[in-house]
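Sequence, please.
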């Protein structure tokens, strides 16, 4: 695995573990997950890219939400 991907994936897993108590994405629709992804994108656009801490957090959240939506889709879960 590429080192950059490994570092990014480790950050993704760290955030997922921090949120294990929330019950997971399997109970959420793909549509809900994509809406949350869009909200993170909007957060970056609204607050500018000069806040590197916020941008990094949002990018990790967006990556996790993308993975969750992808998992729902390959599991044949409804998009809605």
């Amino acid at each position: 695995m590429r080192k950059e991907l490994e570092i990014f994936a480790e950050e993704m897993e760290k955030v997922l573990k921090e949120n294990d108590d929330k019950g997971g994405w399997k109970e959420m629709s793909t549509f809900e997950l994509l809406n949350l992804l869009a909200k993170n994108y909007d957060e970056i656009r609204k607050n500018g890219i000069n806040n590197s801490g916020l941008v990094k957090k949002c990018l990790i959240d967006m990556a996790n939400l993308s993975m969750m939506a992808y998992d729902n889709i390959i599991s044949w879960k409804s998009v809605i």
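Residues 3-74 form one domain.
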